[in-house]
């Protein structure tokens, strides 16, 4: 097997190992809050600060291509997720709300790691009423490999120059004061406080 075939396969194995392969009717969670909701497991990690945003090519259900590196000029929050990943699914509505709240001040880019194609992603967005997030797909899993994402979800905040500020591995409460304060390190003023 050639090196070019091994790397995507290895990336897929690493990503799948971090999250359930298929959602269970009642996904297992490690912690629960007093309300019965699963507690977020991710924490802000600044150990990769200064790393450059990869210039990976993404596609959407309309077969449009986006080179992630072209987004420099405003802050970008990149979220790697999959429809079969229970923690990913849990945080998608929070990311949708975050994108609506920050509007043009923050580019929230969700990147599916699903291998079943654009129709699966488009159906997920429609079923869940996600109106403020893009439907980008990483068909070769190149982005996950480039940023070293071994678990889903993985979310990375980049500043205007395309340099990593911090990342979160695992699900996170994107509606929390902590999340908003961390985002506002690079975004001056959100549209909605």
List keywords for this structure.
Glutaredoxin, alpha/beta, two-stranded antiparallel sheet, 30% helix, 5 helices, globular, 193 residues
How would you explain this protein's 3D organization?
- The structure is a single chain.
- By secondary structure, this protein is an alpha/beta fold.
- The protein has one domain (44-188): Glutaredoxin.
- The protein has five helices and eight strands.
- A six-stranded mixed beta sheet has the order 1-8-7-4-5-6, with helices on one face. Strands 2-3 form a two-stranded antiparallel sheet.
- A hairpin with a 5-residue loop joins strand 7 (154-158) and strand 8.
- Residues 1-17 and 20-37 have low confidence and may be disordered.
Walk me through the topology.
Blueprint: H1 3-18, E1 44-45, E2 57-59, E3 65-67, E4 76-81, H2 86-102, E5 107-112, H3 118-128, E6 136-137, H4 142-147, E7 154-158, E8 164-169, H5 177-183
Quick description:
By secondary structure, the chain is an alpha/beta fold.
Q: State the strand order across the main sheet.
A: 1-8-7-4-5-6
> Structural class of the secondary structure composition?
alpha/beta
CATH homologous superfamily designation: Glutaredoxin
Uncertain spans: 1-17, 20-37
Q: Number of helix segments?
A: 5
Q: Could you name the CATH class?
A: Alpha Beta
Strand percentage: 15-25%
H/E topology pattern: HEEEEHEHEHEEH
The CATH topology is: Glutaredoxin
Quick one: biggest sheet? 6 strands, mixed
Radius of gyration using CA atoms only: 16 Å
Categorize the overall geometry: globular
**Mean pLDDT over the residues:** 81
**How does CATH name the architecture?**
3-Layer(aba) Sandwich
Q: Total domains, how many? A: 1
Distance between the termini: 52 Å
Helix content: 25-40%
Give the oligomeric state: single chain
Number of strands: 8
């Amino acid at each position: 097997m050639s090196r070019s075939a091994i790397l995507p396969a290895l990336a897929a194995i690493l990503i799948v190992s971090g999250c359930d392969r298929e959602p269970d009717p009642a996904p297992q969670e490690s912690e629960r809050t007093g309300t019965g909701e699963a507690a977020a497991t991710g924490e802000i990690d600044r150990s990769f600060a200064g790393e450059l945003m990869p210039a990976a090519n993404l596609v959407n259900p309309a077969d449009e291509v986006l080179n992630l590196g072209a987004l420099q000029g405003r802050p970008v929050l990149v979220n790697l997720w999959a429809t079969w990943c229970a923690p990913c699914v849990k945080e998608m509505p929070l990311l949708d709300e975050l994108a609506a709240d920050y509007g043009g001040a923050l580019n929230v880019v969700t990147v599916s790691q699903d291998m079943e194609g654009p129709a699966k992603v488009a159906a997920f967005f429609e079923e869940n009423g996600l109106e403020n997030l893009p439907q980008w797909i990483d068909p070769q899993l190149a982005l996950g490999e480039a940023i070293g994402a071994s678990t889903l979800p993985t979310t990375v905040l980049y500043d205007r120059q395309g340099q990593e500020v911090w990342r979160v591995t695992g699900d996170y409460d994107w509606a929390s004061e902590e999340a908003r304060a961390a985002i506002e390190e690079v975004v001056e003023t959100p549209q909605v406080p």
